[in-house]
Amino acid sequence: MAKVKAMVSDLVRIVAQAFSARRRQRFFSMAAASFAVVLLVAACAVSQEDLPQADSGAASSTSSSDSSITVYTALEDDQIGGYLESFKAQNPDINVNIVRDSTGIITAKLLAEADNPQADVVWGTAASSLLVAEEKGLLEPYAPAGLDAVNPKFRDDANPPQWVGIDVWMSAFCVNTVESEKLGLPIPKGWADLTNPVYKGHIVMSNPASSGTGFLSVSTILQNSASEEAGWAYLDKLHENIAQYMHSGSRPCKAAGAGEFPIGISFGYRAVSQKNDGEPIEPVFPIEGSGWDVEANALIKKAEIKDAAKTFLDWAISPVVSKKYAENFAITAVKTDVPAPAGFPTDPVAQLADNDLRWAAANRERILAEWTKRYDAKSEPKS
Amino acid sequence: MTPTSSPRPLRIDRTRAIDAEAWIMRFFLTLGALWLLVGVVLPLIPMVGRSFRDNSGAWVGLANYWQYLTTPSLVQSFINSLTVALTTTLLACGLGFIYAYALTRTAMPGKQVFRTLGLLSLYIPPLAVAIGLIFLFGNQGLMTTGLFGSLPGWNINLYGFNGIVIGEFLYCFPQAVIILMTALNLTDARLYEAAEVLGASTVKTFFTVTLPSVKYGLVSAIFVCFILAFTDFGVPKVVGGNFNVLATDIYKQVIGQQNFAMGATISVFLLLPSVLAFGIDRIVQRRQTALVSAKSVPLQPKPNPALDRAMFAFCALVAGFAIAVFATIILASLVRVWPYDLSLSLKNYDFGGVGGGGYRAYWNSIRMSLYTAIFGTVIVFIGAYLVEKGRGLAWLRSAKYVLSTIPLALPGLVLGLSYVFFFNNPIWRIPFTGMAIYNPFKGLYGTMALLVIVNIIHFYTVCFLTATTALKQIDPEFEAVSASMAVPFYKTFWRVTVPLSLPAILEIGIYFFVNAMVTISAIIFLYPANLPLAAVAIVNMDDAGDISAAAAMSTLIVATSLGVRLLYSWLTRGMRARSEAWLSR
Questions:
Q1: Which of A122, A363, B81, B157 has a CA-to-CA distance to B227 between 20 and 30 Å?
Q2: Does A46 touch chain B (CB under 8 A)?
Q3: Whole-model pTM over 0.95
C-alpha cells in the first residue's frame, strides 16, 4: 500500500513538473498557435466539390448591369480622350476606367491576371498579342453590333469572332533629313536599300525579342521573301548595318527624331506624328510593302460579363468613333470617308505586304529563337 | 505587515512584468515574421513554381533551366552583368565612401547642401536619368557635340557598357552614401584621442580606427550596390545598346514574349549571386561589435584646411555631375524640339494635351509615397530593432534577417508579377497536395494599400540595413542597464533607441518617399485604373513621343522630393537638435 502511495505521489510530481509554469505556458502557446492556424486554413479551405467550379468560374458567365467597366488599351495615350468623347455622350451612366500601357505590358498583365481577370474589355491592342490571350482561353467570343461593316481582313475569321480590329498600323522608316544630309546619306526607298553599306552603323530597329514592332518587321520580311532562307540572308545583310536593336517599338523613331541615329525602323503613325510635331523626320513607307498588324478589341472571359462591356465593344466599331480613328490611322477596319492623314501613302491598303497573323503567331517562338541565335547571341562584348 | 514579507509580492510582480514583456516581444516578432512571409516568401512561391512549368502550365522539371543554360547568349549576358555590377560597385562605394567621409568626418563647408545633393540622383526617375544621359552623352548630346560644336566634343560611346555603368553609378551612389553616412556618423572620439596620444599618423589612424569601425556599413554598401547594379533593368534597357545583361533578358522574355516560365527561370539565376553576396555579408557581420558604448564621446571633426578644401572640391565634382544630369532634364522639359528647335516654353508643364493622368497622377504619387514613407519607416525600424535587439526566439530573428535582405535581390519586374500571381488569385493551391484555400488577401488587389505594401517590400532591404547599421552601433549596455532597472524594453526603445537612431530613421523615411515617387518596375503591373501615377505617366508620355512632357513631369517629381527633404529637415530640426545634443556636449 505504501508502495502504491509512493508511486502515485511520484506520478503526481512528474505530471506537476511537466506542467510547471514555464512548460505549461509554452505548451499552451503552441496549442493556441496551432489552433489558430488550423482555424484560419479551415475557414479559407475550398471544399473539394467547389474546386472544379471555382476553376471554371469563367464558364458560367452571367450578365450584369453594373455600369463601371475596366478597359485595357495600348492605344496612344494622347488619342484616348478624343475617342472616348462620343462614348461618354452616348452612355453618360457608364463609367470607363482606362488602363493604358505599351502592348507588351498590357498583354503581360492580361496573362498574369488570368486567374482573376480585372479587365472587362481590351481595346486597340495588337491582334498578334490577342492571339496569345486567345490561345490561353482568356477571351470570350462576341459579335459586336455593326460587325458587317468591318473589313473581314481585319477581324478574327471565327463566328462570333474572338477579336475585331479597329485600325491597322504598318511599319515605316523614320529618316532624319538633317542628319542624313550631314552624313551624305541618300533617303532609302525600301527594305533593299537598307543593306547598302553606306548605312553601316546608322540604322536602329526594334529588337523583335522585346518588341512587337520589331517582330512585325522580321516576320514580314520572312513571309515576303522568295523563301525563308532568302529572308534570313537579307536579315544577315541588314544586321551588318544595324547600330542597335532597341527594346521598344517607338524608340527607333524617337532616336531618329532626336538625331541620335539617322534612320529608325519603326511604324507609320509614329513617323507621321513626329514629323507633324516639327521634327526633321521623313516617313518612308518601303516600296516592297509594309509589315502590318491590326489593333483590335476583345471581350474578356470572366464569371460576370457586364452589359456595359458589350455596349463599349459595339461603340468601339461604330462609324462615329471610326471617323476619329481615321484622323490618326490611314487604314481603319470600318471604312470611313475621312481621307488618309497627311504623310501616309495615298492608297494605304496597297502599301500592306502579305502578312498572315496566324502564321506569325504559330511560328513566333521558332523565328525568335533563330533570330536570337543569329544576331542577339553575339551580344556586344565590353567595348 | 512584517518587514520580511514585503519583498515577496514585489518579486512576483517583477517576474510577471518580465514575462509579459517577453510575450509582447514575441508577439511583435511573430507579427513581423508574418509580414515578411506574406510580403516576400509566399508571393515568390507561384513565381518560382513557374520556372518548373512550361508556358501552358505543364510540369517540365528542370527543362527551362537546361534550355536557358544551353542558350549561347547566357554566358555572355552573365559575364556582362557581373562586369557591370563589379565596376559600378567599385565606383559607387569608393566615391560614396569619400563623399560620406567628407560629410561626417571633416569640417568642410556646405555639408548640409552636399548632404541633400549627394542623394539628388536618387530623386530622378530612372527613365529621366536615361533621357538626361542621352541628351548629355548621346550622339547628339551636349558633351558629345561640345555644346553643338562651340567646344571640342567628347564622345564617351554611351550606348553599351559605359552608359550602363554611368547610369547604375547614379542609381547606386546615393544608396552607398546613405549606408556609409550612417556608419560613419556614430563613432567614439576616445579612440581617436588614444590614437593621437599614441602618436599614430593620420593614415595609420584611418586604417586602424576608421576603416575597421565602418566595416559593417562598408560591406552592406558593397552588398547593396552589387545587387542593385546586377538586377536593375531600367538603365540597360534604354542606354544598353546591344550590350545584353541578365535583367534585359528577363524583360525580353516577360514583356517581349510573355514567356513567364522563362522569365521566372532567369529570375532564379539572378538570385544566385545575390545569395552568395548575402552569405559573405553574413560571415563578415558576425564579428561586428557596438561602437557607441554608453561611455562614448562623440567625435567633433577638427578643421584641416587642406583636407577640407580637397574634400569640398571632390564633393562639388560628384554633386556637380548629378546636377548636370538634372539640369539637362530641366532643359529638355523647356525646349520645343530637341536638338533642332531650342526655343523655350513652359507649355510642357500643362499636361493637358498628353496622356498619363497629368496632375491627378502627380497627387496620387505624392499620396502613395507619403503612406509608404510613414508605414515603411515604422515597420522597418521596429523590424530591425526586434532582429537586432530582441531577446529570445533566436531562430526567428535570424530567419527575419534573411527574409529582410531578399527583397533587394528581386528585380521590380519580378516582384510586381509575383504580386499579381499571388494577390489576384482567388484560390491558392497548396503545392503537392490536393488542397486549396481561399485567398484572404484578395481584397487588396487593385488598391492603394497593395501599392504601398509592394513599395515597402521593394525598398525594404536598404532601409533595413540602414536601421541595422545604426542599431548595431548602439551599445547593448543601454538595454542591459534598462533591463536591470526593470524598465520595460518598449520604454528603452522609445526613450533611448529611437532618439539615438533618429538621423537614420529620418533617412529611411526620405528614402522610402523618393523611391516610391520614381519607381515603375513593380507597380506598373499593380496600379489600378482609377489610380494613375506620375512615374507611370512619365513612361507613357515618353512612349507617346512626348519627351518634353516626360521631362517636365520628372522635373516636378525631383522638385517635390527636394522640397519634401528640405521641409522635412526644417520641421525635424528641433527634434534632431535635441536627439543629437548628446553628440556635442
A1: B157
A2: yes
A3: no
Contact call for B258 and A104, based on CB within 8 A: yes
Using only C-alpha atoms, chain A has a radius of gyration, in whole angstroms, of: 30
Residues of A in contact with B442 (CB under 8 A): 116
Residue A33 has phi, psi (to 5 degrees) of: -65, -45
Q: What is the CA A283 to chain-centroid distance, rounded?
A: 25
Determine the Cα–Cα distance for residues A147 and A138; give it in Å rounded to an integer.
21
Count up the domains in chain B and report the number.
1
pLDDT tens-digit readout, A281-302: 999 999 999 999 999 999 999 9
Q: Do A78 and B434 touch (CB under 8 A)?
A: no
pLDDT at B2: 43
H or E element, residue A270: helix A268-276
Domain boundaries, chain A: 62-168+293-344, 169-292+360-376
- On whether any CB of chain B is under 8 Å from the CB of A180, the answer is no
CATH (domain of B90): 1.10.3720.10
Selecting from B162, B255, B436 the residue whose C-beta is nearest the C-beta of A210 gives B255
On whether any CB of chain B is under 8 Å from the CB of A337, the answer is no
Q: Which residues of chain A make contact with B548, given a CB cutoff of 8 A? A: none
Q: Which fold has domain A62-168+293-344?
A: D-Maltodextrin-Binding Protein; domain 2 (3.40.190)
CA distances from B338 to B75, B344, B511, B549 (A): 38, 11, 32, 12
Among residues B227, B217, B224, B222, the alpha carbon closest in space to that of B104 is found at: B217
Model pLDDT for residues A189-199, shown as the tens digit of each residue = 999 999 999 99
Q: Which chain B positions have a beta carbon within 8 Å of A380's beta carbon?
A: 160, 241-244
Name which of A51, A97, A372 is nearest B529 (Cβ-Cβ): A97
Q: Which pLDDT band, with edges at 50, 70 and 90, does B406 fall under?
A: confident
Strand-pair category, A164-176 with A292-300:
antiparallel
Q: Which residues contact A55 (CB under 8 A, 6 or more apart)?
A: B427
Give me the interface pTM, i.e. the ipTM: 0.80
- Does A131 lie at the interface with B, CB-CB under 8 angstroms? no
* Residues from chain A contacting residue B251 (CB–CB below 8 Å): 210, 247
Mutate to test the interface with B, among A116, A205, A261 (most CBs of B within 10 A): A116
Average pLDDT for residues B64-74, to the nearest whole number? 82
* Residue bearing the bigger pLDDT, B184 or A63: B184
Residue with grid cell 539565376, as numbered in its chain: B269
Does B7 reside within a domain? no
Search chain B and give the residue with CA nearest A260: B139
Closest to A174 measured CA to CA, from A296, A256, A273: A256
Give the alpha-carbon dihedral of A295, A300, A305, A307, to 10 degrees: 0
CA A217 to CA A205: how far, in whole Å? Answer: 9
Residue type, A50: D
In Å, how far is A248's CA from the nearest CA of chain B? Answer: 9
The answer, for B145 touching chain A at a CB cutoff of 8 Å, is no
Residue B101 to chain A, least CA–CA distance (Å) = 32
Contact B424 A113 (CB under 8 A): yes
| CB contact at 8 A, A150 and A182 | no
What cell was used for A263?
A: 534612320
Contact A248 B159 (CB under 8 A): no
Peptide linkage before B339 cis (omega within 30 of 0)? yes
**Range list of β-strands (E), chain A:** 62-64, 68-73, 95-100, 121-126, 139-140, 164-176, 203-206, 242-246, 263-267, 281-284, 292-300, 304-306, 331-332
* CA-based nearest residue to A52, from B49, B45, B429, B59: B429
CB contact under 8 A, B417 and A108: yes
